[in-house]
Give the backbone structure.
Amino acid sequence: MDFIIKETQKGGVTILELFGGLDAHAAPQLDAKLKESLAAGKAKLVIAMAGLELISSAGWSIFIETASQYKEKGGDIRLAAMKGDAAKIFRIMGLNRIIKTFDSTAEAAASFI
Amino acid sequence: MKKIFIMDMLADEKYLLTIRNFFTESVKGSGIPLPVDDVDYLELAVNEFCENIIRYGYRGRYNGRILLKVAVESDRISVIIIDRGEPHNILEFDPASHETLVEKGVQGKLGIKMIKTVCDRIYYKRLKGKNKTMLVKIAGKKQADKKE
């Protein structure tokens, strides 16, 4: 499945739903989207991950590197609805110490309020 | 019983999905039942390794190739990956520390850390200008609590 990004807004929070495989080929598309959102002043961002089939280091690196830029603008990047194997990798790699995660998109969005 | 599947592919990021599909379809096509988690983890490792070959082994050259040989057995899946890029012995690279990830977010090292975390055995040999790496996942070996 090709990589797809779907954007919605909810109470001042930008929600990006990701679908498909987030690999090195797809990563620049996400990177551009995150930079575009930040430039538009949308610094509160939730990444909904239930539709992702795979996340490679290229994808994780974007989250790690971009989250600090969002924090500098008074916002953050928060991950939601991560599936089993991605969640395990996230924890095993210690990325949970860098980025906040939530069970659902609604919880992640509410955490900004 | 061992079933073997082979694919030769142009080393280009746009073919990563094809490589992943080849791997998962090989395992399915073998008819040998294996834990879904093991297949998913090794799929991730194969993807990571091929990303590294494309980005660092071939350094952006678009005429390089990657040969994948997937061997499926009842107790393991082994993937041999052969390329003609720069020598890159994954066993010689230290996985990125947490501090490195936070401070630098180094993608290549993060990928190596992921491969070393999810694979149970890794072998490397440089022979006649080729890198030959084997990634092995043992069926049913508990992964979630494996420490680096």
Remarks:
- Helices of chain A lie at 27-39, 57-72, 84-92, 105-110.
